[in-house]
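STRUCTURE:
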């Protein structure tokens, strides 16, 4: 199905599709690239800590015990912390900073899928840098955004598959955008570069931690699987055509053999 087909499923039955597209057009009106501050909103470390506090394992169980806990103890504190993180970036990057937690369509109730569709498009079409708050590996949404950044770096978002939502269909313009996508930087809280093996290592440990605590890790596991898939795919391609197939940054990781390297990276 590819990147485009997967994303289309997010919004295919949405009642807010036109609203999402309108908001996206507003972000496109910003004529410079941006720095995107990836932050947890409905999940993250705070989410799991609150569930443990109430001795439950899911949002539905939490709401049965306290109907206000999700908003008051998870979403609002997450947004406050995330916005503070985004503000801290304003003096550290040359690009305008977008804090997704500050956006809320008050009149229309958006689904998680609506939000993800919008932020994927903003990340692809506007972002030069993705900044990840500490603990991002415990956030379902931030993990998905990390994966999309890696997919961009490795050319999985390209004119053939994944750029269908770009405003122009001109081949030359899409090729120019494609080259830009591969240069996106993923950075941690200290502005150190995050690469695919960092993501695999961090997600592996967060998943193991949460499994031991009895939590559902389906979404995080899907993100980890996608990172493995990117790495193994490129190992195959590099074995076939090591000189003309694009892979960013530390190409030797893949030339050594992805499986033993990833096994080493995910050890305690």
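SEQUENCE:
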């Amino acid at each position: 199905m590819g990147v485009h087909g997967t994303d289309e499923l997010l919004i295919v039955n949405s009642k807010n599709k036109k609203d999402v597209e309108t908001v996206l057009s507003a972000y496109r009106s910003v004529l410079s690239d941006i720095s995107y501050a990836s932050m947890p909103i409905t999940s993250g470390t705070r989410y799991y800590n609150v569930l443990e506090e109430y001795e439950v394992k899911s949002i539905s169980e939490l709401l049965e015990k306290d109907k206000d806990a999700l908003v008051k103890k998870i979403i609002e504190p997450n947004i406050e912390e995330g916005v503070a993180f985004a503000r801290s970036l304003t003096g550290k990057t040359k690009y305008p900073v977008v804090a997704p937690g500050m956006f809320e369509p008050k009149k229309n109730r958006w689904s998680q899928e609506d939000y993800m569709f919008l932020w994927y498009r903003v990340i692809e079409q506007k972002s030069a840098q993705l900044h990840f708050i500490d603990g991002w590996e415990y956030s379902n949404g931030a993990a998905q955004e990390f994966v999309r950044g890696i997919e961009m770096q490795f050319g999985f978002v390209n004119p053939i598959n994944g750029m269908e939502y770009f405003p122009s269909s001109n081949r030359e313009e899409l090729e120019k955008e494609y080259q830009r996508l591969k240069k996106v930087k993923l950075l941690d809280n200290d502005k150190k570069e995050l690469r695919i093996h960092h993501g695999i290592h961090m997600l592996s440990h967060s998943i193991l931690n949460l499994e031991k605590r009895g939590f559902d890790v389906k979404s995080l596991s899907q993100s980890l699987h996608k990172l493995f898939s990117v790495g193994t795919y490129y190992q195959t391609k590099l074995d076939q055509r090591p000189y003309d197939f694009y892979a960013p940054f530390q190409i030797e990781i893949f030339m050594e053999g992805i499986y033993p390297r990833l096994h080493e990276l995910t050890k305690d």
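REMARK: Residues 2-196 form one domain.
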